[in-house]
Amino acid sequence: MPVYNCRASLGRALESVYEQSLGRSAGAGAIEIIAVDDGSTDGSGEELDRMAAARLGLTVVHQPNSGGPGAPRNTGIDRASGEYVFFLDADDHLAPEALERMCAMADANGTDVVVGQYVGVGRQAPVFPRDLPRTTVAETPLLYNTLSPLKLFRRSLLERLGLRFVENLFSHEDMLFTAQAYFGADGISVVASYDCYYWIDREDGTSSLQQGGAPAEQYFPAISEVMSFLAGRVEPGPLRDRLMLRHFRHEIATRFGARYRELPEEEQALTRVGARRLVDAWYTPGVETGLWPRSRLVMHCLRYRLDDVLAEIVATDPDGPPPPTVVEKDKAFQAFPRFRDPATALPDHLYDITDRIGTENRLTEVSWTPSGLRVIGRAALSGVTERQETTLLLRRRGEPSAERRLPARALPPDRFRADIDLVADETLDDGAWDLYVEMRVQELTVVRQLRPADDLEPPERRLVRGGRAAVPARRGQGLELRVTAAQPGVVMTLESADWAADGVLRITGHVPSALPSGHPVEASAELLRRQDGTVVPAKARASCVPEALNLTAEFDLRGCDPGRWTPWVRFTVDGVTIRVRPPAPPSPPRPGPAGRLRQATPYRTERGGLSVKITPARAAQAARRFARRLRG
């Protein structure tokens, strides 16, 4: 751990190592901590000495300030004796199981480098989608996006390759080290399923990168060495372009941000000269394709020495709102300075964003209407002020050719409303239909999956034509409309349950539906005796009204034998019969007579259904008890 003027975070960083599960599972001596104080002036060195006196396993080394973290890291490597070496910055900290999981991954797969999942705090950090037991940079180019040394290295790898950090460099001293380790390693592992490393930006803005990094005279030769090493290990082609893109995006384009405008004129000139050399050596059409217009324009101006145009490009804020988007037929351009300026004649492709135009896409409301499902949301091509056409697309999962296009009505500003008609004769086939939105300006068409707002709750399922059910639901980051057979999930909503007359139980309720009013429906009902399956028919009627299928059933209990009876209601829609069990109300009806010498008691089952228990009436029970006593 290199330490320079970070006393406030030392305790957290070291405590995260002391709390490692590896130290508990493999013994206290499994972890050796080497903290190298690189001439701190804020008391960090004295704080390290105090901690070392109180805890075993911490070795503190003091040395004069070297001007960067490379020299103290090298001191640590020279003193390390473990099988593995991990580099921890004093601003950051580890998750409790980080070292155990990474060492286990290396042990199991024989790999020389293990990358643990990063968590950025106040900064962006690379994120890996899944664990990779064994890979290479060629197989997983995403690895090259992180050239920091905040990883686990097999110490034999460092000694075999003689790897050490560039010294006396304020920033980016680690890139060549990590690149050489990647390409010289016998396999690389990734632990993505566990957040291992908390990568923290200093709140006071004093880190090397927050201060702008090393000066141009030191910075660009260091970056050139890394890019030259990469070019020597990877043949020209798509893979080299993919890896070189990382350097043009993060090490070159970033030097021409807001901080560039604050540099003295001499440092600006040195920056242009240093960056131009890298552009002349390694910038290719394949790299250019991966950059956004602002960065493309910077590289173009550097290559062709258009310093006056470069000044205008640099004056745009890379972190601010992008310039307007201009659409011409099926192309989109970001109108950065000098776009279509005949005096400069910069090529259009520098400004082209057709394949990566941004969108504002959010589903804010989903609700049922008498005829189907209504969706309301926001959909717009970013930066485009022209009028656009919006279309809702339903695509059946697994069948790309199965698509329904529904016109959307514009709701200013940049909102739309679309209705999925489930009443029309032509209904959606069974299956899962994902919702997309198509945005069109002139001949430019962009399709994106609709993303529900975080607080959006899809409505309940509804009965539709053909005796099926339509169920809107979240799926991943999108919304699906699933159309299925209705029976498994149809639920009757109870409105009332009471006695219509002595021994006649009347139940009214409804099933949510998207059937048109007056749609033909037939109904029947029955009582089922649970002991032996005896069935007693009952009366029922049904009718379709807006957004509901109303049901009424009357169960005559007067002819039913003692026992437990379950009421069921059936209704038939478009030739499909669906059987539902009425739910019990919170307070079931009071007991009532069920014919001569019998009593009916409605009750709620454990699963919330309505049942009726029929027993002999109390007077009859008393008479029978008296008769038994007389016989006795």
Explain how this protein is built:
By secondary structure, the protein is an alpha+beta fold. It folds into 3 domains: 1-207, Alpha-Beta Complex (Spore Coat Polysaccharide Biosynthesis Protein SpsA, Chain A), CATH 3.90.550; 358-485, Sandwich (Immunoglobulin-like), CATH 2.60.40; 490-618, Immunoglobulin-like (Sandwich). Helices cover 25% and strands 34% of the residues. The strands form 6 sheets. Strands 23, 24, 25, 26, 27, 28, 29, 30, 31 and 32 form a 10-stranded antiparallel beta sheet that branches. Helix 7 runs parallel beside helix 8 (216-233). The longest helix has 18 residues, at 216-233. The chain is flat. The N and C termini lie far apart (97 Å).
Please outline the helices and strands.
Elements: E1 2-3, H1 7-18, H2 21-25, E2 33-38, H3 44-54, E3 58-63, H4 70-79, E4 84-86, E5 93-94, H5 98-109, E6 113-121, E7 132-135, E8 152-154, H6 155-161, H7 175-184, E9 188-200, H8 216-233, H9 238-252, H10 258-261, H11 265-282, H12 285-289, H13 293-303, H14 307-314, E10 325-328, E11 331-334, E12 359-369, E13 372-381, E14 389-396, E15 403-407, E16 409-411, E17 415-421, E18 431-441, E19 444-449, E20 462-464, E21 468-475, E22 478-485, E23 493-501, E24 504-512, E25 522-529, E26 535-545, E27 548-556, E28 563-573, E29 576-580, E30 592-593, E31 598-604, E32 610-616, H15 618-631
Parallel strand pairs: 1-2, 2-3, 6-9
Antiparallel strand pairs: 4-8, 5-9, 6-8, 7-9, 10-11, 12-13, 13-17, 14-15, 14-18, 16-17, 18-19, 18-22, 20-21, 21-22, 23-24, 24-27, 25-26, 25-28, 26-27, 28-29, 28-32, 30-31, 31-32
